């Protein structure tokens, strides 16, 4: 069975500090990978997607970047956090090819102070 | 780009009644429409989806209807139970891409 693990579970960071969030998918080779962001009480915004190692497509610009260093790993980062980065970050995966059911991780709650 | 609008921001129903959540989309090329449930403080959990080659799909107490002409789809939850209380998100995607656009979410409250 496939599992998706996100880390950390929660973070409190200062404005201007760097950030790195991670996600690992086990039990599935070459998945499509996604990062989503949810503002408190808000809808979900897709940030990035990746269909293969080393290839990441940006969906919206939020002063964040993403990388896929391994087939099963997806990293979200920034060098300088803004207050507006606060929210719930969700990593997700789907089977390769035509979009199908997307499976979400448990998320990372980020508070920027 | 695609926009998905979710019409009910909150919905309160009595236990045992049906709940209906409506969504509309803008991109005629959209062909995949999933629904997700989010309980308080938790991640998203897939509940049901529908593709554009059908106009109705049922899974136990959940029914999804798709009207391609009107670019509208809806989630019907029959015989609601308190554990159905959550935020429900609709979403839409074209078959070609990896972009899933979500609606704003509907808070469903099932009361006794």
What key phrases describe this protein's structure?
heterodimer, A: 113 residues, seven-stranded mixed beta sheet, four-stranded antiparallel beta sheet, 0% helix, globular, B: 112 residues, mainly beta, 11 strands
List the helices and strands and how they pair.
The complex is a heterodimer of chains A (113) and B (112).
Chain A: E1 3-7, E2 10-13, E3 19-26, E4 32-38, E5 44-52, E6 55-58, E7 65-70, E8 73-78, E9 87-94, E10 103-104, E11 108-112
Parallel strand pairs in A: 2-11
Antiparallel strand pairs in A: 1-3, 3-8, 4-5, 4-9, 5-6, 7-8, 9-10, 9-11
Chain B: E1 4-6, E2 10-14, E3 19-25, E4 30-38, E5 44-51, E6 56-59, E7 62-67, E8 72-77, E9 86-94, E10 101-102, E11 106-111
Parallel strand pairs in B: 2-11
Antiparallel strand pairs in B: 1-3, 3-8, 4-5, 4-9, 6-7, 7-8, 9-10, 9-11
What this model shows, in words?
Chain A is mainly β. Helices cover 0% and strands 57% of the residues of chain A. Chain A is built from no helices and 11 strands. Chain A has strands at 3-7, 10-13, 19-26, 32-38, 44-52, 55-58, 65-70, 73-78, 87-94, 103-104, 108-112. In chain A, strands 2, 4, 5, 6, 9, 10 and 11 form a 7-stranded mixed β-sheet that branches. In chain A, strands 1-3-8-7 form a 4-stranded antiparallel β-sheet, with no helix packed on it. In chain B, the strands form 2 sheets. In chain B, strands 2, 4, 5, 9, 10 and 11 form a 6-stranded mixed β-sheet that branches. A 5-stranded antiparallel β-sheet of chain B has the order 1-3-8-7-6, with no helix packed on it.
């Amino acid at each position: 069975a496939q599992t998706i693990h996100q880390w950390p579970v929660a973070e409190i960071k200062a404005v201007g500090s760097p950030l790195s969030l991670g996600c690992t998918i086990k039990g599935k080779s070459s998945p499509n990978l996604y990062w989503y962001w949810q503002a408190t009480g808000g809808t979900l915004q897709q940030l990035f997607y990746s269909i293969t190692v080393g290839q990441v497509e940006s969906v919206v610009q939020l002063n964040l970047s993403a990388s896929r260093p391994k087939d099963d790993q997806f990293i979200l980062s920034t060098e300088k956090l803004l207050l507006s980065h606060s929210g719930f970050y969700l990593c997700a995966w789907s089977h390769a090819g035509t979009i199908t059911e997307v499976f979400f991780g448990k998320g990372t709650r980020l508070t920027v102070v | 780009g695609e926009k998905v609008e979710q019409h009910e921001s909150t919905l309160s129903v009595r236990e045992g009644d049906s709940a209906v959540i409506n969504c509309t989309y803008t991109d005629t090329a959209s062909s995949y429409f999933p629904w997700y449930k989010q309980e308080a403080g938790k991640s998203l959990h897939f509940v049901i989806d529908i593709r554009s080659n059908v106009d109705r799909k049922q899974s136990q107490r959940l029914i999804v209807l798709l009207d391609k002409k009107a670019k509208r789809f809806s989630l019907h939850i029959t015989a609601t139970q308190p554990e159905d209380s959550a935020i429900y998100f609709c979403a839409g995607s074209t078959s070609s891409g990896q972009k899933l656009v979500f609606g704003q979410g509907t808070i469903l409250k099932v009361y006794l």
